[in-house]
Amino acid sequence: MRRDGFSSSVPEVLKRVLARRGMERRIKELWILPQWREIVGEKISKHTQPITVKKGNLFVRVDSSGWLTQLTYLKEKIISQINQREGSNLIEDIYFHLGEVKENCSVRENIQSGKIRNKLNKKDWVKIRENLVNLKDSSLRKTVKRILIREIMSKKPGQTRS
């Protein structure tokens, strides 16, 4: 269906652009992080914090050994839930490890508060701007910007997702 003279919708165009840049799978992987609470439920999410996804492996911090043991038994079920939600075998394994579970705070909140601005260097911001230059829709630009920031932050040594 044509809308306003365009043969494709914005999401369709974005999907093609991201696929050409090799970012489609990575964005799908990173999209799991903010959906964690919805996937596992409130009770589990209070004791866990998804950190990152790398090469099909989801890394999750757990606040106690009791929860770590329980989640080990639930691992296959959680993987299945994620993959069904995404419609592909995006996650192959989950690695749980003990650590401090911080209260969830979105990337958007951290950008607005300036916490992320101080963690990214000039080269990172240039890379983000280069990827956003051709996106005219402001809402789409903001969404892609948050995804790119999360991607860069996940690759920084010693950084956790904020």
Primary descriptors:
162 residues, GMP Synthetase, Chain A, domain 3, three-stranded mixed sheet, mainly alpha, 7 helices, globular, single chain, 2 domains
Structural write-up:
This protein is mostly helical and 162 residues long. The protein folds into two domains: 8-100, DnaA, N-terminal domain (GMP Synthetase, Chain A, domain 3, 2-Layer Sandwich), CATH 3.30.300.180; 105-162, no CATH class. Helices cover 56% and strands 12% of the residues. The protein contains seven helices and three strands. It has helices at residues 10-20, 24-40, 42-45, 65-86, 107-113, 122-132, 138-155, and strands spanning 48-54, 57-62, 93-98. The chain has a three-stranded mixed β-sheet with strand order 1-2-3. Strand 1 (48-54) and strand 2 (57-62) form a beta hairpin.
- How would you sum up the global shape? globular
Largest sheet: 3 strands, mixed
Number of strands: 3
Terminal CA distance: 40 Å
Order of helices and strands: HHHEEHEHHH
Indicate the percent of residues in helices: 55-70%
CATH-scheme architecture of the largest domain? 2-Layer Sandwich
The CATH homology group name of the largest domain: DnaA, N-terminal domain
CATH fold name of the largest domain, please?
A: GMP Synthetase, Chain A, domain 3
Q: Spans with pLDDT under 50 lasting ≥5 residues?
A: none
**Class by SSE composition:** mainly alpha
Tell me the name of the CATH class of the largest domain: Alpha Beta
Whole-number tally of structural domains: 2
Order of strands in the sheet with most strands: 1-2-3
Strand content: 5-15%
Helical stretch count?
Answer: 7
* Rounded radius of gyration (Å): 17 Å
The average pLDDT score comes to: 78
